[in-house]
């Protein structure tokens, strides 16, 4: 069957099997391998992408079901060479170690900041509670999202371009 | 890699269209909404439908509406929508209690109330919530609607009164004055199925005694409500003593099985303890007088 959807702002049309999962459509059909494929059972959350702005586990959605909708993957976070503040925050605050959970974490953070530009630590922890970091780097992930909140996360265009000067260590409200 | 067996996919545009498609494609067709129960089953090949009928575009099924003494919730209403609805939280705090601990926030963006009730997993929370609130389920077929109580709708694990050619279209909750409700679950980690959970509704009379009460248990081997446990509350003033008796009877009514989430005696203990906790909370929310909550345990 033919599906058409918007992926990172561009309309794409492809022939797919109805049984193709969204995660494989993004990775294999479109070559967008930034979306990671993990547990395959909607537990780990590394496959999270935004569908119409909301985080969705793409291992548990069909490409066919997503037709007609807007999908945003980690490849769609940066604006050219300008990182989204969420990405910048993960750099500044060491929000990733092995990096496997990172795309899903960043997209959930993006969706959270879109509806709540200044979330507290508890709100961030709740928002990412469906996602697993097996490096257990949750404290730094939370700090990264807080960094983004403090640095104009509502508007990607205000984020510093790469390479960004290292931000001075800010007084953190999130304990180490 | 888990991939469903091949199937054909079609989108329904309305309830009538979905019913036509179910009729046309017959017993090997399945309806999909959030897909967070059906797709995992299809990936494990536990379900192999030949046709998947997607109802996500059926906007008439996505609503939360107050209609006199009833709250009408469309079957396609997402968990996240229920949790963010101030009206739902005000009328039925038990729904918010349960929704906060159903799966995780990302899954709640997709999963629906109709899907949860239709899947009828024995560890599923909204079935207990609907039992406790004495909700009615609207099941629609080509011949029209059936509005049935939970005792008729929920036939047991993975089985409901919704026939193959029918669609769950709405859940209706009666709005009761001077009522309070609560739900509490013990889970091993965020997003896991319940080790055990309990829910309760208390309706108070003008003199502050209990005019109506229901208690439900999740993942504890009890279908429907714990009738004997609720009966001891009727006519009594809410108190630790009567809650303890209700907890004891709820535990006696449970028949949990040992699994990786815990042994039988632990789960039976949870039935008792969680029943007391939700009764305390429901009583407070119903505006009951001072409770000796600190003496509980």
Automatic annotation (TrEMBL), chain A:
Residues 1-77 form the 2Fe-2S ferredoxin-type domain. The keyword Magnesium does not apply. Pathway: Alkaloid degradation; nicotine degradation. PROSITE patterns: 2FE2S_FER_2. Residues 156-176 are annotated as: Disordered. The keyword Oxidoreductase applies. CDD domains: fer2. It comes from the Bacteria. GO terms for molecular function: 2 iron, 2 sulfur cluster binding; metal ion binding; oxidoreductase activity. PANTHER family: OXIDOREDUCTASE WITH IRON-SULFUR SUBUNIT (PTHR44379). This is Carbon-monoxide dehydrogenase small subunit. It comes from Geodermatophilus sabuli.
Automatic annotation (TrEMBL), chain B:
The keyword Nucleotide-binding does not apply. GO terms for molecular function: FAD binding; oxidoreductase activity. It comes from the Bacteria. Coiled coil: none annotated. Residues 2-178 form the FAD-binding PCMH-type domain. Keywords: FAD, Flavoprotein, Oxidoreductase. PROSITE patterns: FAD_PCMH (PS51387). Gene3D superfamilies: 3.30.465.10, CO dehydrogenase flavoprotein, C-terminal domain, Uridine Diphospho-n-acetylenolpyruvylglucosamine Reductase, domain 2. This is Carbon-monoxide dehydrogenase medium subunit.
